[in-house]
User: What shape does this take?
Amino acid sequence: MESGLKMNIVRMNTVVTHNPADALVTPRLRREYRTMECMVRIWCANQHGERAQAAPCEECREFLAYAARRLEKCPYGEAKPTCAKCPIHCYKRAQREHARVVMRYAGPRMTWRHPWLALMHLVDKLRKVEHPMAERRRKSNRVQ
Assistant: This one.
């Protein structure tokens, strides 16, 4: 009995490293997450100093986890536009402002550090989508 209890304690104290991008099913969403991750790393390394060189700080990791949850729930899926062009604002106000600050700082630096992701992000900005409710209304009008 005691060994079973000991094993449960060990399991509870074990830190499980979960990559938020693992839950994203399409390559497009994984690339979107990778772009956000690179931008946050660039911003964090400058704003949070030496401690952020190897990996983002706890605050930035929490923001990345939030961004991954939002990407998982995106109604557009593979056809997702960039968040700035999206008609649905799924980020809370504080997180949306934080993303804006991070992207404004890291965006120009992405060109040199991650040129492919920067280029694909620019291509993704060209995507045009309509609001899901407008599409639903259009389909319901056809049925009538």
Summary: The chain is about 65% helix and 0% strand. The radius of gyration is 19 Å.
